[in-house]
Protein backbone atom coordinates (compact mmCIF):
# COMPACT_ATOMS: atom_id res chain seq x y z
CA UNK A 1 0.00 0.00 0.00
CA UNK A 2 1.26 3.46 -0.89
CA UNK A 3 2.56 5.16 2.28
CA UNK A 4 0.87 8.53 1.66
CA UNK A 5 -2.42 6.82 0.87
CA UNK A 6 -2.17 4.80 4.08
CA UNK A 7 -1.36 7.90 6.17
CA UNK A 8 -4.29 9.82 4.73
CA UNK A 9 -6.89 7.08 4.99
CA UNK A 10 -6.27 5.15 8.22
CA UNK A 11 -9.58 5.95 9.89
CA UNK A 12 -10.75 4.44 13.16
CA UNK A 13 -12.47 1.06 13.00
CA UNK A 14 -14.66 0.04 15.96
CA UNK A 15 -16.70 -2.76 14.38
CA UNK A 16 -15.09 -5.99 13.25
CA UNK A 17 -16.13 -9.12 11.37
CA UNK A 18 -15.99 -12.42 13.32
CA UNK A 19 -12.92 -13.49 11.33
CA UNK A 20 -10.14 -14.16 13.83
CA UNK A 21 -6.67 -12.64 13.63
CA UNK A 22 -3.90 -15.20 13.80
CA UNK A 23 -1.47 -14.80 16.72
CA UNK A 24 1.37 -14.77 14.15
CA UNK A 25 -0.22 -11.70 12.54
CA UNK A 26 -0.30 -9.91 15.90
CA UNK A 27 3.39 -10.71 16.31
CA UNK A 28 4.11 -9.35 12.80
CA UNK A 29 2.23 -6.13 13.56
CA UNK A 30 4.19 -5.66 16.79
CA UNK A 31 7.37 -6.53 14.92
CA UNK A 32 6.67 -3.60 12.57
CA UNK A 33 5.56 -1.25 15.34
CA UNK A 34 8.86 -1.63 17.22
CA UNK A 35 10.66 0.36 14.52
CA UNK A 36 9.00 3.51 15.89
CA UNK A 37 11.25 6.33 17.08
CA UNK A 38 11.53 7.16 20.80
CA UNK A 39 13.56 9.68 22.77
CA UNK A 40 17.13 8.38 23.22
CA UNK A 41 15.89 5.19 21.53
CA UNK A 42 14.54 4.19 24.94
CA UNK A 43 11.85 1.97 23.36
CA UNK A 44 9.67 2.21 26.48
CA UNK A 45 6.79 0.11 25.13
CA UNK A 46 5.24 -2.90 26.79
CA UNK A 47 2.19 -4.70 25.38
CA UNK A 48 -0.28 -7.01 27.12
CA UNK A 49 -2.40 -8.97 24.65
CA UNK A 50 -5.68 -9.28 26.54
CA UNK A 51 -7.15 -12.65 25.59
CA UNK A 52 -9.09 -13.71 28.68
CA UNK A 53 -12.83 -12.91 28.31
CA UNK A 54 -13.31 -12.19 32.01
CA UNK A 55 -10.38 -9.79 32.01
CA UNK A 56 -11.72 -8.09 28.88
CA UNK A 57 -15.09 -7.61 30.58
CA UNK A 58 -13.40 -6.21 33.68
CA UNK A 59 -11.46 -3.61 31.71
CA UNK A 60 -14.56 -2.73 29.65
CA UNK A 61 -16.45 -2.17 32.92
CA UNK A 62 -13.70 0.25 33.96
CA UNK A 63 -13.88 2.11 30.64
CA UNK A 64 -17.68 2.36 30.54
CA UNK A 65 -18.12 5.20 33.10
CA UNK A 66 -15.36 7.15 31.36
CA UNK A 67 -17.23 6.81 28.07
CA UNK A 68 -20.51 7.79 29.77
CA UNK A 69 -18.93 10.92 31.24
CA UNK A 70 -17.15 11.76 27.97
CA UNK A 71 -20.44 11.77 26.05
CA UNK A 72 -22.20 13.76 28.77
CA UNK A 73 -19.52 16.48 28.65
CA UNK A 74 -19.64 16.56 24.85
CA UNK A 75 -23.45 16.80 24.90
CA UNK A 76 -23.14 19.88 27.11
CA UNK A 77 -20.77 21.46 24.58
CA UNK A 78 -17.57 20.83 26.55
CA UNK A 79 -14.20 19.41 25.50
CA UNK A 80 -13.87 16.34 27.76
CA UNK A 81 -11.00 15.85 30.19
CA UNK A 82 -8.78 18.75 29.11
CA UNK A 83 -6.31 20.00 31.71
CA UNK A 84 -7.37 23.57 30.94
CA UNK A 85 -10.81 22.80 32.31
CA UNK A 86 -14.31 21.60 31.46
CA UNK A 87 -17.66 21.57 33.23
CA UNK A 88 -18.11 18.36 35.21
CA UNK A 89 -21.65 17.07 34.54
CA UNK A 90 -24.00 16.98 37.52
CA UNK A 91 -25.58 13.70 36.44
CA UNK A 92 -24.26 11.01 34.15
CA UNK A 93 -26.53 8.49 32.45
CA UNK A 94 -24.73 5.14 32.81
CA UNK A 95 -24.11 2.39 30.28
CA UNK A 96 -24.34 4.38 27.08
CA UNK A 97 -23.85 2.13 24.02
CA UNK A 98 -20.31 1.71 22.74
CA UNK A 99 -19.27 -0.54 19.87
CA UNK A 100 -16.00 -1.52 21.54
CA UNK A 101 -17.13 -2.03 25.11
CA UNK A 102 -20.49 -3.68 24.43
CA UNK A 103 -18.88 -6.56 22.57
CA UNK A 104 -15.32 -6.56 23.84
CA UNK A 105 -15.32 -10.37 24.16
CA UNK A 106 -15.81 -10.69 20.37
CA UNK A 107 -13.13 -8.22 19.26
CA UNK A 108 -10.32 -10.20 17.62
CA UNK A 109 -7.41 -8.36 19.27
CA UNK A 110 -7.31 -6.20 22.40
CA UNK A 111 -3.93 -4.75 23.33
CA UNK A 112 -3.02 -2.79 26.45
CA UNK A 113 0.02 -0.62 25.79
CA UNK A 114 2.18 0.63 28.64
CA UNK A 115 5.22 2.89 28.77
CA UNK A 116 8.19 2.37 31.08
CA UNK A 117 8.58 5.82 32.67
CA UNK A 118 12.15 4.99 33.60
CA UNK A 119 13.00 5.02 29.89
CA UNK A 120 11.42 8.36 29.02
CA UNK A 121 13.11 11.76 29.29
CA UNK A 122 10.20 14.03 30.20
CA UNK A 123 11.72 17.20 28.74
CA UNK A 124 8.79 19.40 29.80
CA UNK A 125 8.20 17.61 33.08
CA UNK A 126 9.22 20.55 35.31
CA UNK A 127 7.28 23.36 33.66
CA UNK A 128 4.32 23.37 36.03
CA UNK A 129 1.85 22.23 33.39
CA UNK A 130 0.83 18.79 32.19
CA UNK A 131 3.90 17.25 30.51
CA UNK A 132 3.47 16.31 26.86
CA UNK A 133 6.83 15.29 25.43
CA UNK A 134 6.93 11.84 27.03
CA UNK A 135 3.97 10.75 24.93
CA UNK A 136 6.14 11.31 21.90
CA UNK A 137 8.20 8.28 22.89
CA UNK A 138 5.23 5.91 22.90
CA UNK A 139 2.47 7.11 20.56
CA UNK A 140 4.54 6.75 17.36
CA UNK A 141 4.74 3.06 18.35
CA UNK A 142 0.95 2.94 18.68
CA UNK A 143 0.48 4.63 15.31
CA UNK A 144 3.04 2.35 13.62
CA UNK A 145 1.04 -0.54 15.03
CA UNK A 146 -2.17 0.78 13.47
CA UNK A 147 -0.46 1.44 10.12
CA UNK A 148 1.00 -2.06 10.11
CA UNK A 149 -2.41 -3.48 11.00
CA UNK A 150 -3.81 -1.69 7.95
CA UNK A 151 -1.06 -3.18 5.78
CA UNK A 152 -2.15 -6.59 7.06
CA UNK A 153 -5.75 -5.93 5.97
CA UNK A 154 -6.84 -5.12 9.51
CA UNK A 155 -8.42 -2.03 11.01
CA UNK A 156 -8.54 -0.68 14.51
CA UNK A 157 -8.49 2.20 16.89
CA UNK A 158 -6.26 3.56 19.61
CA UNK A 159 -8.16 4.49 22.76
CA UNK A 160 -7.20 6.09 26.05
CA UNK A 161 -10.31 5.71 28.18
CA UNK A 162 -8.69 2.94 30.24
CA UNK A 163 -5.81 5.27 31.07
CA UNK A 164 -8.22 7.39 33.10
CA UNK A 165 -8.83 4.29 35.24
CA UNK A 166 -5.16 3.31 35.50
CA UNK A 167 -5.17 2.83 39.29
CA UNK A 168 -8.01 0.30 38.99
CA UNK A 169 -6.67 -1.35 35.84
CA UNK A 170 -3.10 -1.68 37.12
CA UNK A 171 -3.63 -4.68 39.43
CA UNK A 172 -5.81 -6.45 36.83
CA UNK A 173 -3.10 -6.10 34.18
CA UNK A 174 -0.04 -6.47 36.39
CA UNK A 175 1.12 -2.99 35.41
CA UNK A 176 4.48 -2.23 37.06
CA UNK A 177 4.35 0.79 39.38
CA UNK A 178 6.82 2.75 37.26
CA UNK A 179 4.84 2.22 34.04
CA UNK A 180 1.96 4.27 32.60
CA UNK A 181 -1.00 2.73 30.83
CA UNK A 182 -0.98 4.79 27.63
CA UNK A 183 -3.45 3.10 25.29
CA UNK A 184 -5.83 0.24 24.66
CA UNK A 185 -5.79 -0.72 20.99
CA UNK A 186 -8.51 -2.78 19.32
CA UNK A 187 -7.82 -4.61 16.05
CA UNK A 188 -9.66 -6.90 13.68
CA UNK A 189 -10.98 -7.27 10.17
CA UNK A 190 -13.05 -4.14 9.57
CA UNK A 191 -16.77 -4.36 8.93
CA UNK A 192 -16.05 -1.19 6.98
CA UNK A 193 -12.75 0.67 6.52
CA UNK A 194 -13.40 4.42 6.65
CA UNK A 195 -11.06 6.27 4.28
CA UNK A 196 -12.61 9.74 4.07
CA UNK A 197 -11.25 11.46 7.18
CA UNK A 198 -12.38 14.79 8.55
CA UNK A 199 -9.26 16.91 9.25
CA UNK A 200 -8.64 20.67 9.31
CA UNK A 201 -6.60 22.15 6.43
CA UNK A 202 -2.90 23.12 6.74
CA UNK A 203 -3.71 26.85 6.66
CA UNK A 204 -5.70 26.47 9.89
CA UNK A 205 -2.69 25.31 11.94
CA UNK A 206 0.58 26.25 10.19
CA UNK A 207 2.00 29.78 10.28
CA UNK A 208 5.28 31.41 9.27
CA UNK A 209 8.01 32.14 11.86
CA UNK A 210 5.67 32.37 14.87
CA UNK A 211 2.48 30.72 16.00
CA UNK A 212 0.79 34.09 15.57
CA UNK A 213 2.40 34.56 12.14
CA UNK A 214 0.90 34.60 8.67
CA UNK A 215 -0.77 31.37 7.53
CA UNK A 216 1.65 29.12 5.64
CA UNK A 217 -0.71 28.48 2.76
C1 LIG B 1 -4.51 9.78 21.81
C2 LIG B 1 -5.82 9.24 21.30
C3 LIG B 1 -6.80 8.85 22.20
C4 LIG B 1 -8.01 8.32 21.75
N1 LIG B 1 -8.92 7.86 22.67
C5 LIG B 1 -10.06 7.25 22.23
C6 LIG B 1 -10.95 6.66 23.16
O1 LIG B 1 -10.73 6.66 24.37
N2 LIG B 1 -12.06 6.05 22.67
C7 LIG B 1 -12.32 6.01 21.34
O2 LIG B 1 -13.35 5.44 20.94
N3 LIG B 1 -11.49 6.56 20.42
C8 LIG B 1 -10.36 7.17 20.84
N4 LIG B 1 -9.47 7.71 19.94
C9 LIG B 1 -9.79 7.70 18.49
C10 LIG B 1 -10.24 9.09 18.04
O3 LIG B 1 -11.56 9.29 18.47
C11 LIG B 1 -10.11 9.23 16.52
O4 LIG B 1 -8.74 9.10 16.16
C12 LIG B 1 -10.59 10.58 16.03
O5 LIG B 1 -11.91 10.83 16.44
C13 LIG B 1 -10.51 10.68 14.51
O6 LIG B 1 -11.48 9.81 13.98
P1 LIG B 1 -11.23 9.02 12.62
O7 LIG B 1 -10.06 8.18 12.83
O8 LIG B 1 -12.48 8.19 12.45
O9 LIG B 1 -11.06 10.02 11.55
C14 LIG B 1 -8.26 8.24 20.36
C15 LIG B 1 -7.28 8.64 19.46
C16 LIG B 1 -6.07 9.12 19.92
C17 LIG B 1 -5.00 9.50 18.91
How would you characterize this protein structure?
Strands 1-2-4-3 form a 4-stranded antiparallel β-sheet, sandwiched between helices. Helix 2 packs across helix 5 (139-151) and helix 3 (53-75) packs antiparallel against helix 6. It starts with a helix and ends in a 29-residue tail after the last strand. It is built from 6 helices and 4 strands; from the N terminus they run ααβααβαβαβ. It is globular, with a radius of gyration of 18 Å. It has a domain at 3-52 and 100-197: NADH Oxidase. The mean pLDDT is 97. The chain is of the alpha+beta class and 217 residues long. 30% of the residues lie in helices and 13% in strands. It has helices at 3-9, 23-33, 53-75, 99-102, 139-151, 166-173; strands spanning 45-49, 109-116, 155-159, 179-188. The structure holds flavin mononucleotide (FMN). Residues 11-12, 157-161, 194, 197 line the site of flavin mononucleotide.
Characteristics:
single chain; 217 residues; alpha+beta; NADH Oxidase; 4-stranded antiparallel β-sheet; binds flavin mononucleotide
At CATH level 3, the topology of the domain at 3-52 and 100-197 is: NADH Oxidase
CATH architecture name of the domain at 3-52 and 100-197: 3-Layer(aba) Sandwich
CATH homologous superfamily identity of the domain at 3-52 and 100-197: NADH Oxidase
Q: Biggest β-sheet, characterized?
A: 4 strands, antiparallel
Helix and strand layout, with pairings?
Blueprint: H1 3-9, H2 23-33, E1 45-49, H3 53-75, H4 99-102, E2 109-116, H5 139-151, E3 155-159, H6 166-173, E4 179-188
Bound molecules: flavin mononucleotide.
Amino acid sequence: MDLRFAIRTNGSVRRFTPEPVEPATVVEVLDDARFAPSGGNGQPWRVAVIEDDGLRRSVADLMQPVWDEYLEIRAAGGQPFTVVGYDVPETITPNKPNDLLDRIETIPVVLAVAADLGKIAMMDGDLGRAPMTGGGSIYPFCWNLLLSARAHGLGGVMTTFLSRREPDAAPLLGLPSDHALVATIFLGHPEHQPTKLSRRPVASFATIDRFDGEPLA
